Amino acid sequence: MATSSDPGLTPDQVAAFHRDGYLIIPSALPPSTVSALLDETHRLLSTLDLSTHPLTRFLTGGESGDNHVGDDYFLTSGDKIRFFLEDDAFDASGALTKPKERAVNKIGHYLHALSAPFASLLSTASDGSDARGYVPDLRARPAAVARALGFADPRVLQSMVICKQPEIGGAVPPHQDSTFLYTDPPSAVGFWYALEDATLENGCLSFLPGSHRWAPVERRLVRGKEEGTEMVPNGGARFPRGEGYGEGLRPEGEAAQAYVPGEVKAGSLVLIHGNLLHKSEKNLSQKGRIIYTFHVIEGADGFEYDERNWLQPPAEGFTKLY
């Protein structure tokens, strides 16, 4: 549990997060931890058996925002480690054109429970170790960060490694994470760790600062009535609780469209408010961009995680952070 000696965020950082909707924390992970997580990523990639894989591609919505992956392999991945392939790793006939390590878009969605190196990032032990003996050196512990942001009962979900592959790493259009991990009212916050440098050339994130305060969660990705997923109008709360939110706060002119690139070095942590509009461009460079991310939602009374969300909790429920 976070303590007074482990504040997670300074008051200025908390204020910046609430103002901008995102916060970059350089050197949140030291090089030794970054290397350990990259080693685990490459180990996982080496275990992928394409002969038994359904060749599920991860689709990020397309220009309309409606074209998302939704097969059973994807929908039942909430308590497993599964591999989703890059759409541009296939040719017109459906054959892979890249080796498997260069064809994976994403590994998810239960790394924080099933992979010991990734699970260790959530440790709350005083020495940073977990039951399996991993000792990550963390400078902004997730539990302490969540407490600084006001979470009463933070639950961890949707952990994944995202590989923005050289030459083919797909673009991700502007979106809000609460569209995919909706609570009523919205409460999601993304923890995004760069395991390699993220640059303009290899498709770093870009943010629309302050958009979390005026951009409502208008649509939701839910499980289809018969199969797959679909986008539907959001009938619940469209903003988090509290003052300082509302569509009337939307700025006029270019300020409502001026995305800011978030180039970061390996080891950086980026916190992303669930209502914040953000995106990334296609990676056309020869350098990949591997990151690890998970989300935290509020599990306290008064926050409902919708049973229609594409991601449903495992039998034991979403992982408590503290």
UniProtKB/TrEMBL annotation:
One Pfam match: PhyH
Cofactor(s) this protein requires: Fe cation
Annotated keywords: Iron, Metal-binding
Molecular function terms, GO-annotated: metal ion binding
Family the UniProt entry places it in: Belongs to the PhyH family.
PANTHER family cross-referenced by the UniProt entry: PHYTANOYL-COA DIOXYGENASE DOMAIN CONTAINING 1 (PTHR20883), PHYTANOYL-COA DIOXYGENASE DOMAIN-CONTAINING PROTEIN 1 (PTHR20883:SF15)
Protein name: Phytanoyl-CoA dioxygenase
Taxonomic lineage: Eukaryota, Fungi, Dikarya, Ascomycota, Pezizomycotina
